[in-house]
Amino acid sequence: MSLHATEQTPHQNKADQIIIGLFQDQKSNKLTEQLSDVSQKQLADRIKHKDFSGQSGQQVTLYNDNGQQVLLVGLGKNDDFSADDLYDTTHKVISTTAGSRCTSVAVYLQAVDFKHIDKQQATKLVTLAASHATYRYEDTKSFKDDNKHALDRIEIFTDKDNAEAFRLAAGISKGINATRHLGNYPPNLCTPKYIAKYATDIAHGHDKCDIDILDKKQMKKMGMGALLAVAQGSHNKPRMVVLTYNGADNNKDPIALVGKGITFDTGGISLKPGANMDEMKYDMCGAASVIGAFVAAVELNLPINLKVFVPAVENMPDGKAYRPGDVITSYSGQTIEVLNTDAEGRMILCDTLTYAQEFNPEVIVDLATLTGACVVALGHNAAAVMTKTDGMAEEFKQAGEQIHDRVWELPLWDVYQKQLDTSFADMKNIGGMPAGTITAGCFLSRFTKDQKWAHIDIAGVAWKDKKEGATGRPVAMLVQYLINKSRA
Ligand code: BES
Ligand code: MN
Ligand code: ZN
Asked: Which residues lie below 8 Å from residue 455, measured CB to CB, with a gap of 6+?
């Protein structure tokens, strides 16, 4: 699938299908007025016969003499039409097109005058939604010819004012596709080794990129006890993958992104129940998100220095596995009593956070499918951001609003810290039932004491269900954050 900008009018455009939006009770707009006479006549007839009034959800297909389809989409009332509506409408319409016989489509949904959405944002949302709707997982599935998607070209109407918005969204969608691939790829194939290879291929494709991979031996020598404790129950050996992108001056401190890369989370000796355990293949979606953000940053040539840290580890029960009661010394030197081997994400992240600080990053942001409690708190609509650094939560909330990929803040007040107290180590790895997402954040905060840092729990947003799979969230928000930083 390829995404392109087009400046052509609906009449000039030769795509198999042209998609245009019309608000309720409008007989025409500046786009329908540019259609061929044949189409305009059909539209007038359909409106006259009350087949179409522009109500939200309504659609009507017109045909040009050459067989080209013009799809008119009802947008409802402009007063009520939100950015969410534009994204959802585009996604729905293009999903249908993707399943049709059309090989190319030109989208003009963003080109009407909205009351509540500005042009640039509309272009971004429509581009992202169209790309998202045409993604199809194919890596381990064979399609019969008649079940292959025909659509291979999407054109997005773009004038001078929103050419940059299109460029950004197209770059972001490349990152999102990488993230969705990694998330959906099965855990027997998407191993720590595979993630390392995938990252290596990205780095080798660009001259401003570098890669460094630590193996088990090196991590052992360094003393990454918490990460290695999780890894020791699996035959798939762990990796620490570090991707570097030099898009700015050498003397500029990098932005560091850390992504939880548990390639499969059985829970370990504190074994998870069987139902839906397969979904724990998505437990590397933090890693997939930061790799996706890296892909987008490189694609967009952002003027920033970026470092992406991915601890890639499998959490399995085994004769060598770590157990509840174990006391582990982390890379920071702080000791951790393991009271639940299923709280493994924070174990691999704490060592990675300590390691990342050795590179003097301006800020560190970690992303993780860290707690089931986050899904209870915010559902599937927003990721949770936690930070002790002034202003950072606002930056993520703002980036999320800008690009339809929301986050919401949970507090990291010190009063929660005591839930991690234990008689046998500096801390335990679980904080009990109350505020499970926050106490996980508190745990991580102990490893970032003198560092600007934010933690984002993406357990509710990284995947939808078994059918839809990985969403690619929150790559759009993350890249928008990087774009905003690059302009600040
Ligand atoms: N990967 C899970 C969190 C998770 C569970 C995300 C379900 C999305 C859906 C994480 O490693 C985990 O198991 N967390 C435990 C923590 C608990 C033992 C303190 C949890 O949330 O139950
Ligand atoms: Mn777990
Ligand atoms: Zn996990």
From this structure: 365, 366, 368, 370, 385, 386, 387, 441, 444, 445
